């Protein structure tokens, strides 16, 4: 297969995403005003609480079994590596660019959390349908693509709400404390209330491993682990339960299953999550086109982190996993999924996280 053919196969799914995003941008224009700030906020809530959980539970229940999960065990590790490396690079970017304090958590989150769910579910099955796809027969490719992308979405949601959410939340609380200190400057502020985001010693004599240890320890002390049980996480648990336990699977999966109407209905509702999120993404881009107060060097740093450094590191990590036999080399589609997990744009769920922690954007 030539380079041009591969470029066409890879570009068409991306073009589809861009076209849907343009629709969202158009609907957000002031003269149209169908997706203003309030409308986006409410649509985000519908996606967060209803559409995305339905998509996750239906896809996992239908495609992930106990046997298939055993062959995909490296994916959770791979996603964890992307989050950790992205967070470290984001922390370094914050140190170099010195952005306003209210943006620190958002920058680390944007560098750490990639869109592991929605985009692979759109892009990879679409690539399977294109003529000349390198992943074999269309129907087989599409089935496995849906399974891999669903698992990626579920695992990514767990990491997102256990780690990134807490990074943004801690940053928001820090900003709120600073505002309170300004408003009530006559009140003595305890030193413990002024600890920075992922507080690390500023003493240059302290070694980097010690600083990282301080960051991790303080993060665990401040983290709100209740957020791990977000609707998407609960949906992932339900999906795994249905798919991996044979009696429940026989009861709910397949045309002959007595309760197949439940999972079929969830799948119908969940299908709306992908276009809804993409439309929201396009609407949010309108503000960026009008100009932003974020420093250009910060934006460029996030772009370089997510589209240059992480993909290059991902190639070495996945190739290394192949060499030592952690990943089956014959499954090209699985290898491809592992690689693109390092090349995804920032997760769209960050919009929901930021809307929850309003102080981050004030």
From TrEMBL:
Main location: endoplasmic reticulum
GO cellular component, as recorded: endoplasmic reticulum membrane
Keywords: Auxin signaling pathway, Endoplasmic reticulum, Membrane, Transmembrane, Transmembrane helix, Transport
Transmembrane segments: 6-30, 73-94, 106-126, 146-168, 227-245, 265-286, 298-327, 333-354
Topological category with respect to the lipid bilayer: Multi-pass membrane protein
One Gene Ontology biological process: endoplasmic reticulum to cytosol auxin transport
Cellular localisation: Endoplasmic reticulum membrane
Keyword match Transport: yes
Function: Involved in cellular auxin homeostasis by regulating auxin metabolism. Regulates intracellular auxin accumulation at the endoplasmic reticulum and thus auxin availability for nuclear auxin signaling.
Family according to the record: Belongs to the auxin efflux carrier (TC 2.A.69.2) family.
Protein name: Uncharacterized protein
Organism: Chenopodium quinoa (Quinoa)
């Amino acid at each position: 297969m030539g380079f041009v053919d591969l470029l066409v196969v890879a570009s068409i799914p991306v073009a589809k995403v861009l076209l849907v995003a343009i629709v969202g941008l158009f609907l957000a224009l002031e003269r149209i005003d169908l997706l203003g700030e309030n409308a986006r906020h409410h649509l985000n809530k519908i996606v967060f609480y209803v559409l995305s959980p339905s998509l996750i539970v239906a896809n996992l229940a239908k495609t992930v079994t106990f046997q298939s999960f055993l062959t995909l065990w490296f994916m959770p590790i791979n996603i964890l590596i992307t989050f950790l490396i992205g967070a470290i690079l984001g922390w370094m970017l914050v140190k170099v660019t010195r952005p306003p304090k209210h943006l620190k958590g958002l920058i680390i989150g944007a560098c750490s959390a990639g869109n592991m769910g929605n985009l692979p579910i759109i892009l990879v099955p679409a690539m399977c349908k294109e003529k000349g796809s390198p992943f074999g027969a269309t129907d087989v490719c599409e089935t496995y693509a849906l399974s891999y992308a669903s698992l990626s979405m579920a695992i990514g949601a767990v990491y997102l709400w256990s780690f990134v959410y807490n990074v943004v939340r801690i940053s928001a609380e820090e900003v709120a404390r600073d505002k309170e200190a300004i408003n009530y400057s006559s009140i003595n502020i305890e030193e413990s209330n002024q600890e920075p985001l992922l507080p690390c010693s500023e003493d240059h004599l302290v070694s980097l491993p010690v600083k990282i240890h301080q960051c991790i320890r303080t993060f665990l002390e401040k983290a709100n682990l209740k957020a791990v049980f977000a609707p998407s996480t609960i949906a992932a648990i339900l999906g795994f339960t249905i798919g991996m336990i044979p009696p429940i699977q026989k009861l709910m999966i397949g045309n002959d299953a007595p309760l197949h109407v439940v999972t079929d209905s969830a799948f119908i509702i969940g299908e709306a999550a992908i276009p809804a999120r993409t439309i929201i993404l396009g609407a949010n881009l309108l503000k960026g086109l009008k100009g932003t107060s974020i420093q250009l060097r910060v934006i460029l740093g996030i772009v370089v982190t997510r589209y240059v450094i992480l993909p290059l590191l991902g190639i070495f990590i996945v190739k290394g996993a192949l060499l030592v036999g952690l990943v089956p080399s014959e499954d090209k589609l699985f290898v491809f999924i592992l690689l693109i997990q390092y090349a995804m744009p920032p997760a769209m769920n960050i919009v929901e996280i930021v809307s929850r922690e309003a102080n981050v954007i004030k």
